Description:
Elements: E1 2-3, H1 4-14, E2 19-22, H2 29-37, E3 43-46, H3 50-64, E4 68-72, H4 76-80, H5 82-91, E5 95-101, H6 117-121, E6 127-130, H7 137-149, E7 155-161, H8 162-166, E8 168-169, H9 186-198, E9 202-206, H10 213-225, E10 230-232, E11 247-250, H11 257-264, E12 268-272, E13 295-300, E14 314-317, H12 320-327, H13 361-371, E15 376-380, H14 386-392, E16 401-402, H15 412-422, E17 427-433, H16 434-437, H17 444-449, E18 454-460, H18 465-474, H19 489-495, E19 499-503, H20 506-523, E20 527-532, H21 544-550
Helix pairs in contact: 1-2, 3-5, 3-15, 10-12, 13-20
Amino acid sequence: MMNGGELLVAQLQAYGVRRVFMVPGESFLPCIDALYGRRDVIESVVCRQEGGAAYMAEAHGKLTGEPGICFVSRGPGATNAAIGVHTAREDSTPMILFIGQVGTDTVDRQCFQEVDYRAMYAPLAKWVAQIERADRIPEYIARAWAIATSGRPGPVVLALPDDMLAQTVDAPLAPLPRASQGSPASNDMVRLRELIESAERPLLLLGGARWSDSERDTIREFAERFDLPVATAWRRLELFDNDHPNFVGQVSASMPAHQKDVVTQSDLVIALGTRLCEPTTINYQWLASPVPKQTLVHIYPDANEIGRLCVPALGIVASVSGFADAVQTLHPTAGWQPRRRGSQALQAAAEMPPMPGPLDLNVAARHVASTLPANSCVTVGAGNYALYAHRHIAFKGLGSQLAPAVGAMGYGLPAAIAAKLNKRDASVICFAGDGCFQMTMQEVGTAAQYRLGIVILVFNNGLFGTIRLHQERAYPGRPLATNLVNPDFALLAQSYGGFGRVVTRTEDFAAAYDAALEFAQSEHMPAILDLRYDADLILPDRTLSQIRQTS
Length: 551
């Protein structure tokens, strides 16, 4: 016999859950007590705000391919957590959010902190439900797990009435559901080879969630056999070795010109595992909707996504795993030779000119890139500053970077915490804009509490920089609501017992960064470098003044 909270946590343990993220609340105390009883096998990470907890659960889902688990209380807690659910939905990340709920005896009275979560979360989650009988907890969790991990992965929300959690029942645990792995038909693979061999400028576009190292290796071998240039979808750089001669870059409107030329001049696009979203289609201009000018092959595990925006010449309902199994036996026709492939399609990237001012952020980013240990993870949130990471660091494999494709500010720090918890011997570096960082900077307390040696680079130019950039392009010389008055971020780290230093000159960065990384690794505490530079430095290769002059 177990109460509802004990049964729920027992079911999570049976599914292999080893970590949950939460902000505690009285509405799910039976779950908290059950987690106390299983604290040796399930780590409970207490966060400072529900948005940070939900971000961490989403990042955990990205890293592991299994649903990230988050617990929050009703009303204010549930609404705060919405940003993590939105991110999981847009980024196709498996996640389960458990929300404490008012008792069934007071429902629909608009009682204290009551919200109808089915209505609230319906547009954001794959499935929303409320468990009203404790003996059905295993059933609901099994269904939630299956929905979160099948087809296009995503978030599920389950509301937990407090009187249901207190019920005592004798119910068996549910077996772990296994997502079906769709595979291509043999004639689809024959057609794919015909399209590749007849194309002049093919491109393999990789994206999506729940990849494995073996699948990544198989797809690399496929690209090498057919000498295909490879690009990744927006913020999926970890899916292909960035130093590989066939690598082009991540597709976005801001990608460097020499990379964009390879992408936009392609005549065949093989999109594997990725949705054809706005950034990845370059604002629906490179891959036009409904009919792209290129021949499109779309391989995706959810049939509802194929043809939804771009009608493919060949649509294949298959998971990355199913396609990887099938493509292992696909080889070029005897005597066929590629026309123009791989590194031949790339021009040498022009060296970025020195940035004006005393602190050159390109030099700083290159130092990070050149000294980054192999076992590393770099995280970013949203903002122009992310370009310094994505243009200078060559990401090598799964788990080497975490970034929100949805463009959610505040993501980088919670994601860094999740990455460090997932692999404590890894070096974890967070790139954060000053505006981005301040949306979740209270989670530095979480990093300190769990003794997580992460390094946070705060790009501090006193601006909501991306919005200022758009303002100057649309309404030059009329900025409003984009200036920031910032604290001393170095002192914030020091107040938690961490390392903090202000850097204002290029020649001081390397020593400060090396000291921060050594401190984080040896003391197992967070380190912050407050990188202060002029607000005019808005992009790695352009200033606000230059943009204003051309607007």
